[in-house]
Amino acid sequence: xxxxxxxxxxxxxxxxxxxxxxxxxxxxxxxxxxxxxxxxxxxxxxxxxxxxxxxxxxxxxxxxxxxxxxxxxxxxxxxxxxxxxxxxxxxxxxxxxxxxxxxxxxxxxxxxxxxxxxxxxxxxxxxxxxxxxxxxxxxxxxxxxxxxxxxxxxxxxxxxxxxxxxxxxxxxxxxxxxxxxxxxxxxxxxxxxxxxxxxxxxxxxxxxxxxxxxxxxxxxxxxxxxxxxxxxxxxxxxxxxxxxxxxxxxxxxxxxxxxxxxxxxxxxxxxxxxxxxxxxxxxxxxxxxxxxxxxxxxxxxxxxxxxxxxxxxxxxxxxxxxx
Length: 323
Prior knowledge:
Blueprint: H1 3-8, E1 14-16, H2 25-33, E2 38-40, H3 53-70, E3 75-79, H4 88-97, E4 102-106, H5 111-119, E5 123-127, H6 133-142, E6 146-150, H7 165-173, E7 180-183, H8 189-197, E8 203-205, H9 207-210, H10 219-226, E9 234-237, E10 242-245, H11 251-259, H12 264-270, H13 275-282, H14 306-313
Parallel strand pairs: 1-8, 2-3, 3-4, 4-5, 5-6, 6-7, 7-8
Antiparallel strand pairs: 9-10
Helix pairs in contact: 2-3
């Protein structure tokens, strides 16, 4: 055991990234049952986007209840962040009502929010879009239990600073006294070992779990990831910083615009905004969206159950390994 497993009451220091609508109760429960910490992302388990915040809140409540029927182990839920955080309290109160034990807070540094979770004995994981020494220290001061240090190697919305995972991890780990989790580009046990050697006390994996059998991503997405490597990824500037994509029908247009040094706003519109990921990765519409992954996909060779992924990543922590 280490500080992460002790704090979160899990067997292995592994957190499955929320992946927004590319999570569901089945995936989260499978990860938690295997000894990691499964995480429900916003819109988890949904086949359509909600028509209101209240619809989203009710859907999340139902998905939490599904997870609790499938596992007795801890799992995390994501507190949705955005420019308007006025809805955080109804969401947080629902987490308390449903017995959530761990909450992932993206970006937000608000004393009232951290105080609320601490008073209700809920552990908090802080994850900045772009981790810095300053925001990590502030999160620690506010009472976060764990810092997730995300490098430029990650999928989805990547940091605004081009600092790789294995550069950002020691920088953040040396700046705070609470545990640090490495995120970005970790695809097999070698990445886990490297992260731990650099001061991380656990890992946070997303792209790898896109290929889990239980993941609701379109099957074309899973095949594409397995058949691709990091050399296939296109990186382009957009809002809020950068995105990268594997080849889709939309990719040539984005590549052409990037080559023309197109402004970020136009690029964001061309990729169909945040709906781009929903269209391509959830619905399989490669002509209307992108397939975003981290750079660690080169070592992903098959679609397999989440439990096998957890076991492989955490092989150094298996009983009798000496770790």
